[in-house]
Specification:
Largest sheet: 2 strands, antiparallel
GO molecular function: DNA-3-methyladenine glycosylase activity; metal ion binding
Radius of gyration: 17 Å
Order of helices and strands: EEHHHHHHHHHH
CATH topology of one domain: Endonuclease III, domain 1
Structural class: mainly alpha
Protein name: DNA-3-methyladenine glycosylase I
CATH class of one domain: Mainly Alpha
Keywords: Metal-binding, Zinc
Organism: Kocuria marina subsp. indica
CATH architecture of one domain: Orthogonal Bundle
InterPro entries: Adenine_glyco (IPR005019), DNA-3mA_glycosylase (IPR052891), DNA_glycosylase (IPR011257)
Length: about 200
């Protein structure tokens, strides 16, 4: 019996439905989603994009990522931390990005919190310190968790450190995106490719 949650592409590879037909999502799934990210800039970018995704489709965020990278200085935390209200107002007029004042302001807030974290090991070390001892093995979308004890704990700690838009569901999505958990469906050609989980 065929798996309704996996689609076999023309290349013979099995992917989840969400990554099967759209070229942008397929490229992201095949080469980026679930690949470990352990550097400050990469983590700050992922935290930012997950915050912007809240309430929207990932496809929307991914399509706007080049513009986000431009307006947020390549996600250099120091450069973003130096942004002020004039920058926020300017970005609210930029149709290339998601123009949400709270999320734009959150990016600046989180950049400042990221810089402050350097005195205590840094963002990457903090995030990866919440890696769980095991990972899910979902056969179907319905088996994929949306939060975990670790994502709730990470959310609490980041909030304590001054971060915003870092709720438990958003942090679980971050953990999936950076390979801390492997929620590729069993049977997907990407399952187990992160090198984190064997």
């Amino acid at each position: 019996m065929s798996d309704p949650d996996l689609v076999i592409g023309a290349d013979g590879l099995a992917r989840p439905r969400w990554a099967a037909s759209d070229p942008l999502l397929r490229e992201y799934y095949d080469h980026e989603w679930g690949v470990p990210v352990r550097d400050e800039t990469g983590l700050f970018e992922r935290v930012t994009l997950e915050a912007f995704q809240s309430g929207l489709s990932w496809r929307t965020v991914l399509a706007k990522r080049p513009a986000f990278r431009e307006v947020f200085h390549g996600f250099d935390p120091e450069a973003v931390a130096a942004m002020d209200e004039r920058d926020v107002e300017r970005l609210l007029g930029d149709a290339r990005i998601i123009r949400n004042r709270r999320k734009i302001e959150a990016t600046v807030t989180n950049a400042r919190a990221t810089v402050a974290l350097r005195e205590d090991g840094g963002l990457a070390d903090l995030v990866w310190s919440f890696m769980p001892s095991s990972t899910p093995h979902p056969d179907r979308f319905a088996d994929v968790p949306t939060t975990s004890d670790e994502s709730r704990a990470l959310s609490r700690e980041l909030k304590r450190r001054g971060f915003v838009f870092v709720g438990p569901t958003t942090m679980y999505a971050l953990m999936e995106a950076i390979g801390m958990v492997d929620t590729h469906l069993v049977g997907s050609h990407r399952r187990g490719t992160s090198g984190v989980w064997t």
